Amino acid sequence: MSAEATSPGAPIRRRGRPRIDLRRLGRVALLGPVSRDRLPDAIGHVAEAHRAHYPDADLSILRRAYVLAESSHRGQMRKSGEPYITHPLAVTLILAQLGAETTTLTASLLHDTVEDTDVTLDQVRDQFGREVCYLVDGVTKLEKVDYGAAAEPETFRKMLVATGDDVRVMSIKLADRLHNMRTLGVMRPEKQARIAKVTRDVLIPLAERLGVQALKTELEDLVFAILHPEEYERTRALIDAAAARSEGSGAARQDPLAAIAESVTTVLREAGIPAEVLIRPRHFVSVHRVGVKRGELRGTDFGRLLVLVGEDADCYAVLGELHTCFTPVISEFKDFIAAPKFNLYQSLHTAVVGADGAVAEVLIRTHRMHKVAEAGVIALGNPYAADSGTGSQPAEPADGERADPTRPGWLSRLLEWQQSAPDPDTFWTTLRADLAQDREITVFRTDGGTLGLPAGASCVDAAYAQYGDEAHNCIGARVNGRLATLGTVLSDGDTVQLLLAEDAASGPSPDWLDHARTPTARIAITGWLDTHPEDTHGPHAGRPAGAGPGQRGHTRPGPQPQQTTGSGPATTASAVVDRPDAPVRLAGCCTPVPPDAVTGFVVRGGAVTVHRLECPAVARMRSVGRTPVGVSWTDATECRVTLVAESFGRPRLLADLTEAIATADAAIISATVEPPSEQRVRHTYTLQLPDAAGLPALMRAMRDVPGVYDVSRAKHRAATV
Question: Is 270 marked active-site?
Fold first, then answer.
């Protein structure tokens, strides 16, 4: 079945795009190699499309690539019945029409040779160079016989890593998937649905992030037709009806968008602004989304006006004329020229009201912006070569590392976190979740650097983006100069300063996961919690991450576990347990200090955690049959304790409490100030005392601070360990 026959509908095709006669190409392909002095007829359409973008391109390498591809695929047939060579030809044509340079087209012709024929990567490298070889290898699937069910996620991992070094790898993959989706009708319905879902969850978001709107929109329509056939047919009927109305008599009167386009053309001509005004039909999914949003479609909802000009300044001149001569819809105005999208997209968006009250959306951009908006990174040609589009070798610095100007922040983050997700299922699930976040923000660091984060990211995400695993010690943040919670959602353009504790014996709380949007943060937090199971319900568990200035998600108030030697009892600085050679730690949920009545329990890894007898964790562990371990205090005097101060909110309260603590010779390890509730404030401090005997006096001094009505030892629910 031909590509045309299996496409969901003709309206998806864009006007002016040459069609591929697969049956004719199939007959030509079967004729075998051609003479060296002319280009094969089968790729004449590719050469024509390529020369439209690169008039001086050397096509000899395309001829050699076609000869190798045709000879190696000879005898292979697609499930649709055409010779297999028609597939790489179609993929190459798609890329040629979008303006891909010669090297990409060469690799596209060869992209299935290593995977499906006896051609080896060494042969490709010898005949076409290492650059073409790299691109072909990047899109070559891993063998299912070697990887089993992990073959698909691991193939995408391999492809994304290759894309991090050369974005043209993903360009070829997107064009390959588009042609496969066009001809998917010959597959079983269940296989169509499976491929469509992967396309929806992974390939379409990647096309969006790389700015290749021409591929993204058609992929969306093809997926829409397969996964939602009823909604697709209803949308198609609406589009067909609108087209029929505009093609009838008196079209200008019946088509309000055409009438507004004519008025806009007149206004710009009279203003002396050279511009091309086009009606840009919405694709199927776009029409469907507008219908869902508004309930009932208007005549102008089936398309938008596209105004193309020569220079950036002309874009703003057009905007001024439109807002002067028409009534603008101010809420629809967006300036993506001054602030481009993270996928290279630039344009002015606005909406104006026509004479009859019809509202038309208008896109204003230069011809160059339009090319990039359609083709994204493909429009960059060869970003690694000084002479883009010639297929020459990429420029490299002295150390041999490629300087890739096309690696945006989201791709760098993806490449970073995938290294921490060795499990294929974790990678596959996290990849889909990451790609579902379709907007990017930039926040500024106080040292002048920037952080690229997904929309909705919090200070937790910023901490891990800036510091990696060191962010485990983050205790708070300042956003735009003001103290903020770690759970604060950041906005584009914010300035963020992350505050780290000097105490290395601290770590994140499970609550941090509620505020982490980036895979980097989630994987790091989950990894820490998995390796510290006894610490997942510390003195700050159950509170939002970073509930106030100096916030920390969890602090281990006891000293680091110390392994003892010999046959005597194990100890910390102040506790001795009846279990030789066992590391000892003081529980974070109740922070016991001498002379508290205490007991201990063995936790994962053989360590003993010491709890106060009244700690809720003790009753729970006894209820599940855990055997307590005897604990006694040594003569050591230093201790660490967590205190909670309940107070009424007032100015300088935090300063006065801090002064009272310092006067008692206690050192503040960490502090939390929760947001006021009904004019009441809760302060939580983890303190290092030189002598446990001074604890009662310290608590009295804190109670004497004006506004403080209670100071108590922390009592928090702890996990069964």
Answer: no
